[in-house]
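Narrative summary of target 7.
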Amino acid sequence: MLETFFRTHAFLMEHYNAPIRRALMDTIDWSYRLIAIKGPRGVGRTSFLLQYAKENYDSRLRQCLYINLNNFYFQGRGLVSFAEEFVGAGGRVLLIDQAFKLNDWKEQLCECYHKFPLLRIVYTTTSVENSEDNNTELAELARTYVLHGFSFREYINLQTGNRFQPFTSEQLFAEHERIQSAIVSRVHPWQFFREYLGHGYYPFFLENHNFTEALLKAMNMMIEVDILFNKQVELKYLSRLKRLLYMLAVEGGSSPNVSRMAEIIGTSRATVMNYLKYLEEARLINMVYREGETFPKKPAGIMLHDTNLLYAVYNPQMSEQLIMETFFVNTLWRHHTINKERREGFYKINHTTEVCVCERPRRTKTTDNVLFARYNTEVAHGNELPLWLFGFLY
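Modeled conformation, tokenized:
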């Protein structure tokens, strides 16, 4: 049976062509024997594994092997005995896609780690945690990295052939005029920004099929498989989750009326709060809080995770302001603390920097201390900076 997997691996390597090298590839310490690549459905976890294999291993040497635990074969045989056969045949690196699909997969990965000291395992899993699994050994053994959708920087690099590097928020706030000038001298970002908002976050746009249909399919799988399977939610409650997500998309950005939502979908207030957490883990929404507050308190605002989701759900009432704030929050939440302030469009970043997302600067009592992230402009000066520039944070 091992030969079948080697043939599949060779076929994938022969036909795989990475259009862009993901930045995460260079941040991983590949010397670790157990590496987890975590991320939501649709961001390119499978492609990431294949890209790593193609860059580093000749398939003819049979040292590296890609497997997908969706394969029914592993339901019968399990992972440990397969890994033993692979190591016995000279294998050194096992790339395991969708590890969470296998029962007791965490225990089996730990057993492989202890049993095969010369084997390195890189595995992918969903961003949704299994609520009933308290296995902490794997968390201690594995080094975990998170794969996100394309940043605006990666999208521009792909479309133009440039190799722009990411900037820190400190660099962006202090040197935004110099940074934007260096970028604008080589490309006109605003020409690509609208495209990115509609279809640039998920790699589906690289494939020859309908982007929206592919994204809607992924969204349904996030709920039907990742959430229901990992959170042990009964299938009969699926419609409640989907209806809740649509309500959040329609009401975009506002603080939710949790009691009203609970009444509409026919459940309790506590269950709605749990559902919100599940949707956030699946990277379908972002919850933004007032400074000093966090879950399980009610968030100050909820928006879809990224603008591609907004367009896919298609809310005819969505405003340009909502679209731009959704982009803004999505660029910052990974590595920064972002809190929503009471004034519309105002956010506090890392408890220090106040940023207003707007088309034109607004008059405020503290104008000198506020940065204005402006949309519908390619360049800005002084305490203003173009919103698209936040897409270069990762």
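The longest strand covers residues 120-125.
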